[in-house]
Structures are given as structure tokens and as C-alpha cells.
């Protein structure tokens, strides 16, 4: 069996975590604003980002050994996943993320943030319940406008399906949050919808969330994409500031967060 190491030391934007865990290389969702498009994994592949995704080779059960060793050295906090979505369409049959979660349930890290935009995560409620207080599911919901999703991230699951999965997770007692990341053009009732669906909401944008003060988003030609859609008024940090203020008025203190601090593991 290959010597794949599942845990990678976290750096940069995610340095609040000790490790990242990416079960797949590539990502079928292919969001237009995805920063991974500019990373070597995407640039050297020679195929357009969003057209390929494959499971990493290696024994997922080895994660348990890696976790045991890492825990012997101190606190272990895992961001799952940073360069792919752990619930690729392929995951429905491959079940690699599920097996990795099972390994984590057997040797729990202090905390794992399961970051996804796929309702398939609700399939694994039983394993997430075993992880209990060690896990929080963070569902990306960047807007409530399907016309916006179809234009900027057409291969990602519809927002309504994500919200439904979140409700199922919450009902099953799993800790959840919504990551509005990056914030996209949305309806006036968006903040209310978010506050009514999750106990915690994190907001991020193209300017403070790309780890380069907006340069990566500019290199992905996001300002041009907004201009072509007639959405230039939305391409400003004030949009995220305004949503955050609305959310703060609707949710209890401490239940909202912004960018890096919002995504950080609990103290
Ligand atoms: S789901 Fe995440 S990793 Fe996949 S393309 Fe979208 S932003 Fe990139």
C-alpha cells in the first residue's frame, strides 16, 4: 500500500489549525473563484480545474496511526478540506471521506472542521455523531440566488439542498455552521435565512479571505466576471461588512465570525 500521509501541517490562512486533510486531488465543483486554480496542483495538471477529481491512494485506516502520533505531541486540529471538497460526487461510491471520518472517530483529534458545500455529508450523520463534540460541519452557502450560483459556480449543489442537509445535521445533534465564503450577490432576506438555519455563521469575501488582499481574486478575473454580469456594485468589502452587521443583529454574541478568526478552531 502506498505511503500517503493524510495529515499535512497547516500553513497560511489556516495556520490556526495544526493540520489539513485532503482526501481528493482536484474538485468536480470547479467554482470560478476557487483559489486552488492558481496552486501547482491545478496549474501543472494540464486539464481545466473542475473537470477532474480523484481519490488519493493509500490506506485510509493509517490516518488513525497518524492521529495517534500527532496527538502524542500536542493538540491536533484538522481542517477537512482545504484544496478540495471532501464530498465530491465520487464520494457517493468511493466513501473515502466516510472511512477517514471513521478513523477520526476511533482516534478523535481535538477538533475537526468539516468544510463542504455538498448535501452528501448528511449520509454520514452516524459517524459524525460518533465524533460528537470533536467535529463541526461547516456548510458553504455563498448566496440564496440560484441565478448567481448558475453563473459563478454552476457545478456545485443548489443552495436549497445544502440548507436541507444542514437542517438534518442539526436535528441529529451535530454542531454546524454556515460559511458564507466568499459572499456572492444575494437577496435582501439572506441574513434572516442564514440566521434561521444555523447556530453560527462565518462571513468572508474576495478581499480579506483570499490570503493576498484580493490579488488572487483579481488574477482569477473576478472583477471582470462581476462587471459582465452587471454586479459590479457587489464587488466591494462593504457588501460583507453589511451582511455581518445584519447577522450580528439576528444572532447571539459570539455566533458570528469573520474571515480567518471566524474559521479558527474553538479555543
Ligand atoms: S468546492 Fe472548494 S475546492 Fe472545489 S472548486 Fe469550489 S472552492 Fe475550489
From TrEMBL:
Keywords: Iron, Iron-sulfur, Metal-binding. The keyword Transmembrane does not apply. SUPFAM superfamilies: Radical SAM enzymes. It holds the Pfam family Radical_SAM. InterPro entries: Elp3/MiaA/NifB-like_rSAM, MJ0683-like, rSAM, rSAM_sf. Gene3D superfamilies: 3.80.30.30. Signal peptide: none annotated. One of its GO terms (molecular function) is catalytic activity. Residues 13-247 form the Radical SAM core domain. This is Radical SAM protein.
Amino acid at each position: 500500500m502506498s505511503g500517503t500521509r493524510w495529515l499535512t501541517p497547516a500553513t497560511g490562512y489556516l495556520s490556526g489549525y495544526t493540520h489539513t486533510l485532503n482526501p481528493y486531488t482536484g474538485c468536480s465543483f470547479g467554482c470560478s473563484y476557487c483559489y486552488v486554480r492558481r496552486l501547482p496542483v491545478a496549474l501543472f495538471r494540464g486539464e481545466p480545474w473542475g473537470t477532474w477529481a480523484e481519490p488519493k491512494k493509500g490506506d485510509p485506516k493509517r490516518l488513525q496511526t497518524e492521529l495517534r502520533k500527532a496527538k502524542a505531541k500536542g493538540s491536533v486540529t484538522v481542517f477537512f478540506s482545504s484544496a478540495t471538497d471532501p464530498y465530491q460526487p465520487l464520494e457517493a461510491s468511493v466513501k473515502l471521506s466516510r472511512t477517514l471520518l471513521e478513523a477520526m472517530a476511533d482516534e478523535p483529534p481535538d477538533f475537526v472542521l468539516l468544510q463542504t458545500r455538498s448535501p452528501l455529508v448528511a449520509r454520514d450523520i452516524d459517524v459524525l455523531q460518533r465524533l460528537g463534540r470533536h467535529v463541526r460541519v461547516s456548510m458553504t452557502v455563498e448566496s440564496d440566488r440560484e441565478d448567481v450560483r448558475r453563473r459563478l459556480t454552476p457545478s456545485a449543489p443548489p443552495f436549497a439542498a445544502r440548507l436541507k442537509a444542514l437542517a438534518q445535521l442539526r436535528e441529529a445533534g451535530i454542531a454546524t455552521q454556515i460559511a458564507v465564503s466568499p459572499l456572492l450577490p444575494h437577496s435582501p432576506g439572506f441574513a434572516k435565512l442564514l440566521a434561521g438555519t444555523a447556530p453560527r455563521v462565518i462571513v468572508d469575501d474576495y478581499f480579506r479571505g483570499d490570503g493576498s488582499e484580493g490579488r488572487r481574486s483579481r488574477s482569477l478575473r473576478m472583477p471582470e466576471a462581476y462587471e459582465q454580469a452587471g454586479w459590479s456594485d457587489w464587488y466591494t468589502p462593504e457588501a460583507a461588512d453589511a451582511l455581518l452587521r445584519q447577522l450580528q443583529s439576528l444572532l447571539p454574541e459570539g455566533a458570528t465570525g469573520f474571515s480567518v478568526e471566524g474559521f479558527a478552531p474553538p479555543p
